[in-house]
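Dear support,

I submitted the protein below through the web form. The confirmation email said the job was done, but the results page showed an empty box. After a refresh the structure appeared. I'm attaching both so you can tell me whether what I see now is the final result or a partial one.
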Amino acid sequence: RSADRIRICAQLHDLRDKSVLWSQTYDFKSADLLAIQEEVTHRVSRSLALEIFPSATVGARRYTRSPAAYDAYMKGRFFWHKMTTEAIRRSMDYFNEALALDLEFAPAYAGLADCYAQMGSVRVAQMKPLDAVAQARSHLQKALDLDETIAEAHCTLGLIKSWYDWDWNGAEREFQISLGLEPSNVTTLLWQSLLQTSLGKKQEAIASMQRAREIEPLSPSVNLYLGMAQEFAGQHDLADRQMQHSIELDPAYYRAHMFLGKLLSGLERHEEAVVELRKALSLFP
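What the results page shows now:
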């Protein structure tokens, strides 16, 4: 985005030799993001010639008809990924703003469910876990009642089954449903990676985060969680470099400093660890 313009670049890659098979850039005025989304979808479909993908099916997602509600939802997702107390509260405000504009905007209910799940977690810790998960389940059910094909809703259900229910098989199933609906859902890949690590599937956990990084290479959180997966797999040098890269992308991201400090402490590089942990505390007391 720049001022009142939005540019979208679409590319088709051959992963075998890293070549670019097709590329196209689209420029629009950003007055109506939903109309832009629909227009780009149709143009890309026409350009690629659907016979290339004989088994593909393209479904219509039921988004809100309100551009303002959609914009508020996207802002909510932006702040949600920061994973701080203040950011989660701002995220909730934006999701509620989206619902005030459109009460049937299912993704916004899924967003609120995500927020409540975090409010009861150790990283945000603003509600008693049982109270938080009750609110999360309530909003999640509203999302699924409106549209059960929302990848974000199945991602959140997988998170609840993992964090709160300890239903590992159920969590894995929901993450796979989510990725089946939206293969590029980075949040699902992140939570799936944490679950795989917990179950001892360390290489699968790394693969999930490598896939997420291919989708969002400049995300500090994605790069950090790839480093965490590498750390749990005993790849300490790779993890060190990956966490340093996360800090380069966003020096104010406290979690990168926190987990790098933890990694350095485990490697008995204690003076360096203290520096990173103090930095994390200064950013998020």
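Response: this is the final, complete result; the empty box was a page-load delay. The beta strands are 5-14, 19-29.
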